[in-house]
């Protein structure tokens, strides 16, 4: 029997029995973890209020073996709030839908429980912090998060040099299967010809050039979001359920 302590973000919750919940978290040190929180659905439980989606918490786990993730689910025995991002996110539809898509993305990219995914964890914390503070438009924060999540998981799209032969850009065509922009010689069936502004927007979001991203017209933002969605769908092999509700 062992105690573990870690900080993490609550991704989702599921009812268990009459008063318990299964809490799924993305933690700093142990990656994605599912744990049972007992009694948290009771009205008087202050513990349960800290374990809602979007919450950034310091959590103590009790596991029956020497590893946190083993045969059975560990127990979540204590939690302290680090940042209650959900308070400002759930009251605004645009922030809420963008945040929900971010939580689902983080869970999909950490499909092996117990494996550390520090970069994904830090991206999620940063993205939720930006959403809750209203630093940028929610759909831009989401697209930036999706692009960077793809990048840290080894699927960084190219927005300048040809993704196939490396020919310096700008290049006209874009192919999700090829890995981003491609030149005329490397063009493959299914390639599209996006506007230069949409490609510039996505490059700015990936590198964190917010002034350039926020200067884009709405039509180019919508076009860029479509490319991000298609690229993410290709690499996840199925789309995000929550993405269809995001306001563009």
Describe this structure in words.
The protein is of the alpha+beta class and 248 residues long. Helices cover 37% and strands 22% of the residues. It contains 8 helices and 7 strands, in the order βββαββααααββααα. The strands form 2 sheets. Strands 3-2-1-4-5 form a 5-stranded antiparallel sheet. It has a two-stranded antiparallel sheet with strand order 6-7. The mean pLDDT is 91.
Q: Radius of gyration in whole Å, from Cα?
A: 20 Å
Strand order in the largest sheet: 3-2-1-4-5
Overall strand count: 7
Total count of helical runs of at least 4 residues: 8
What is the overall pLDDT average?
91
Q: What percentage of amino acids are in beta strands?
A: 15-25%
Briefly note the structural class of the backbone: alpha+beta
Distance between the termini: 49 Å
Task: Name the helicity range.
Answer: 25-40%
Quick one: overall form?
elongated
Protein name: DNA repair protein RecO
InterPro entries: ARFGAP/RecO, DNA_rep/recomb_RecO_N, NA-bd_OB-fold, RecO, RecO_C
Family: Belongs to the RecO family.
Function: Involved in DNA repair and RecF pathway recombination.
């Amino acid at each position: 029997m062992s105690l573990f302590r870690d900080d993490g973000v609550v991704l989702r919750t599921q009812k268990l029995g009459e008063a318990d919940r299964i809490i799924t978290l993305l933690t700093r040190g142990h990656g994605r973890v599912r744990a049972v929180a007992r009694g948290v659905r009771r009205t008087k439980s202050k513990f349960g209020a800290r374990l809602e989606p979007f919450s950034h918490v310091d959590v103590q786990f009790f596991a029956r073996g020497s590893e946190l993730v083993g045969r059975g689910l560990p127990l979540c025995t204590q939690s302290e709030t680090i940042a209650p991002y959900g308070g400002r996110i759930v009251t605004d539809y645009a922030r809420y839908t963008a945040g929900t898509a971010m939580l689902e993305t983080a869970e999909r990219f950490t499909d092996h429980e117990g494996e550390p995914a520090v970069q994904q964890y830090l991206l999620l914390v940063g993205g939720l912090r930006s959403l809750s503070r209203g630093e940028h438009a929610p759909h831009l924060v989401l697209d930036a998060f999706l692009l960077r999540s793809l990048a840290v998981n080894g699927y960084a799209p190219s927005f300048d040099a040809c993704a196939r032969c490396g020919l310096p850009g700008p290049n006209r065509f874009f192919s999700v299967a090829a890995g981003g922009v491609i030149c005329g010689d490397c063009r493959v069936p299914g390639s599209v010809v996006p506007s230069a502004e949409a490609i510039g927007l996505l490059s700015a979001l990936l590198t964190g050039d917010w002034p350039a991203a926020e200067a884009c017209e709405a039509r180019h933002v919508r076009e860029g979001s479509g490319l991000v969605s298609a690229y993410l769908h290709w690499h996840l092999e199925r789309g995000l359920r929550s993405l269809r509700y995001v306001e563009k």
